Amino acid sequence: MASLLGRLCLPHVPGVGWARCAPGGPCLSQARLCSAGAFVQSVPPQEEADSKVSAQKKTFSELQVERSEQAQRTVLINCPANINEKAFLKYLSHHGKINDHYFYESLGTYAVVEFSEKESIASLQDVTRTPYVEKECTIPFKSRIFTLSLKNPVTQGADRPSVHYHKQSTILCKDLLQKLCRADNVSNQLYTLMDECQLTEENTKLRFLACSLIQDIARAYFPDSTVQPFGSSVNSFGKLGCDLDMLLDLGEIGRSPIRTNTGPFYVEYQMKKVPLERTATQRILSVIGDCIDNFGPGAMGVQKILNARCPLVKFSHQPTGFQCDLTVSNRAAIRCSELLYIYGSLDSRVRALVFSIRCWARVHGITSSIPGSWITNFSLTMMALFFLQKRTPPIIPTLDQLKALADAEDKHIINGNDCTFASNLKKIKPTENTETLHVLLNDFFEYFGNFAFNKNSINIRKGKEQNKPDSSPLYIHNPFEQGLNISKNVNQIQVERFVALARECSWILQKKDKSQSSLCNKKPWGLAALLQPSIAKSSLKNKKQLALASERMQSLLDSLKINSAKRE
Amino acid sequence: MASLLGRLCLPHVPGVGWARCAPGGPCLSQARLCSAGAFVQSVPPQEEADSKVSAQKKTFSELQVERSEQAQRTVLINCPANINEKAFLKYLSHHGKINDHYFYESLGTYAVVEFSEKESIASLQDVTRTPYVEKECTIPFKSRIFTLSLKNPVTQGADRPSVHYHKQSTILCKDLLQKLCRADNVSNQLYTLMDECQLTEENTKLRFLACSLIQDIARAYFPDSTVQPFGSSVNSFGKLGCDLDMLLDLGEIGRSPIRTNTGPFYVEYQMKKVPLERTATQRILSVIGDCIDNFGPGAMGVQKILNARCPLVKFSHQPTGFQCDLTVSNRAAIRCSELLYIYGSLDSRVRALVFSIRCWARVHGITSSIPGSWITNFSLTMMALFFLQKRTPPIIPTLDQLKALADAEDKHIINGNDCTFASNLKKIKPTENTETLHVLLNDFFEYFGNFAFNKNSINIRKGKEQNKPDSSPLYIHNPFEQGLNISKNVNQIQVERFVALARECSWILQKKDKSQSSLCNKKPWGLAALLQPSIAKSSLKNKKQLALASERMQSLLDSLKINSAKRE
């Protein structure tokens, strides 16, 4: 419990760099947790106090702007594996002050270098050559992705220890299980899982850089456009290796321009006109997709899916290793990312619980990377948030409560839907609930193991069960479009599997007593036990027993009906 | 004759603005002619002497650079037809000094405005709005094409006389014939035709502007690229309304970069690689074609013809009214444009003769806008140049003579072909030949009416007939690739038609005596007579007579052979 209270929770806030507080230390009163371990190294101790304050003040959009600006001052450099880090930094600092840098591996060694000034990039570009390959031809598009090579590979690279690589993917499953078994208690197992799976500061920076590189391509024709990450990359629930959702905002499409008031004339640009915003979106995405495909270094497997409800371009960005989805102007999606970010930032138990439940669901095939009738990560997150709203006292507020806290500037009506909620974290009172994650995880399984999915819907706006508006097996209200079910795709079989597994896991958590959770126990315990694939089998057995029982019940009812009919 | 000698010939050289010299005036010794009537208005008298000198010094490439630079400072503005020119200029001069402007009509009233500084465009763009159209959507690509509207159309535009429009197309055929009939003599008829058909200074500027607008699109991704006009737009033989051939030069494709020598590393851009320069060309043209199609205001009917020998993108540029062909890196084509420019600049009789012959060929269906077995304008021009090389004394030098005059910097070897010739006009001694255009036109028809097309080829490099390397009905050596026949497409029927018409026209010119060439004569005379469609019919009749005669000759020969065979 002590270590649970001893953390502050602010996922990936730049400049936030304090370590976990000592158990029972001065943070005790705050009941919030921090797990961004990667930060600890990058911020010098003397800056901690200040950045803690300023980071806490920052809203989601301030953070987005700050990170985007940072990304525009950043370059990506493919280096020899045996690079001398010191010489490398010395060489680059001829072009300007370096704020930050790190190395990672992705089809070679890459360095992310953040300059202090944008001008440094132009200076570097001035000395950069177009590659010349015998019998091949290059498309001379000049981006911020460079290849650095040694003038004298033999002497320069001799016996050099390789640089430290920052991880860009999650730990192997068996290693994770081992780590979990070494934890003190179930609650810390959940934190350990989150620490291993969540996006690192470096990976988040890389995501903003990838967006910024695509933004360069879009800005060639639309200088007012921006490309920003949304979804799991920024909503604080993303795990390492998750897809990178990019949003292209053209800034001006369909918006009424300001009339300037000089002289007797109006001047307008002559522009192509199309009958629908959708057509404009499709055309622009199509051309930008072609530019990415034909010019963008390292962009592979570009697929244009322009006739989808939300037209998109998919591609794999090899230098950063991200699978990217580029869409146009979807402001509601950005608001949704912000809402999750707020929930994730209010109390660290939120993210720890959601990470663990998602991991558990993935192991047992409740969620899937293939579209289909499976429950999605987004639906699971909504279920977890709903569960946390229903605790006594609640751990997080309902969306309606967040809306009540909103300022005038928080007001957002998008396509007629009210997307208003408070953006300022300071306005939201911390919870007084002190339940452990062990309790919460167990109760989550118990709650949904017994949830009346057949008649009730889940709605984080209200924070209470409602009657289902239709007969969908699983009904979760879209937080901003209340009439939409975000889990319309889910079929009855999947709901039943989820319920059976939840019951099985609740049973396992309660069954295993404290004695089993000691270190060096050979059998996996706690969360690790729940992540064993064998559970699915036993839950299925239980399900079969349930099915048999319900069959028997049905025949009983039928016979009763027959008997009563005979009597009439 | 006097008026023939009284002109100086420098087609469309910026800053050249003197009117025709008086007959027998001070220009008499120069035996060259000027017809750029449009210039006279735009250059103030005191600048004439200087610009005459500087313009004469300018080479083709200096001119291209100067005009391209001019075009980059120029904007295109769609105005209300009843615009007040003074108010318009006053309004625009808020953004900077205006060097030049003019109006023309093309689906509305357009103004071409050349600022003195490039920055003025940015200033104008600052006050320019994105158009907002109810129920339509615009592609927010910001170009240098604007729409200007009156804030108060009723009071501002009331009873205003419309501005002066510069012509962008040739005179109607019947009007041309009338004008020709009003000329003093046949020679002046040829000059009149050239004056009416040739590109004006304004139209040439508009062509460079159209290229510059496409260059903006290309430079978005390839900042070192240029888009330049080539072919008839700049070779001094273009007529109003001719297609605009554009050449995209990416600057770097396939060229070895310079190695910069700083520190222990090399830095290169990471770039897409393709196996062939052709593939690179196709990809780049394809994407730029899509950009023009989807973003470029006023670009219509974009067609990508990427599998042609020389991949190209065709489109119609509505604001300028040009039909454009965009190709990539064809340096030989640029050299060819320069060669024609030099020939056209050496002696005004060259252009006057070529314009008249082309017009004559078009009227009689010898050339056609549809590809096929017709003789092309380029072939006709080569024939005329060849004819002028064969006069005594020659009016223009052979290509080998021009090569002999070349400097080290004139040396151009393109794909193994020698494209070397002197670029500096001052090095080429003016001709001493003083024949009139009347004589030249007549002799042209006579010469080619009797040319041994069956055994001889035409080669402007040598300036003399050669044995045909193959049996093509018409063989004209490509000036730079001597082994290629530029008229390979032409079939025997077309050559026969050309010969028959040439003979008929030579006969008409000789038959009509001076008395017929008086003013107010009802029957067309001289060149006008040659442009009557009825000639084709009578030439055909002559051809029939010829055919009959040759048939008779053949039977005679056959009978002789039979007789001799009998004797053996």
TrEMBL record, chains A, B:
PANTHER family the record matches: POLY A POLYMERASE CID PAP -RELATED (PTHR12271), POLY(A) RNA POLYMERASE, MITOCHONDRIAL (PTHR12271:SF133)
GO cellular component: mitochondrion
Record InterPro entries: MTPAP-like_central, NT_sf, RL
SUPFAM superfamilies in alphabetical order: Nucleotidyltransferase, PAP/OAS1 substrate-binding domain
GO terms for biological process, alphabetical: RNA 3'-end processing
Transmembrane segments: none
Pfam families named in the record: MTPAP-like_central, RL
RL domain boundaries: 59-128
Protein name: Mitochondrial poly(A) polymerase
High-level lineage: Eukaryota, Metazoa, Chordata, Craniata, Vertebrata
Poly(A) RNA polymerase mitochondrial-like central palm domain: residues covered: 187-344
GO molecular function: metal ion binding; poly(A) RNA polymerase activity
Species whose genome carries this gene: Pelusios castaneus
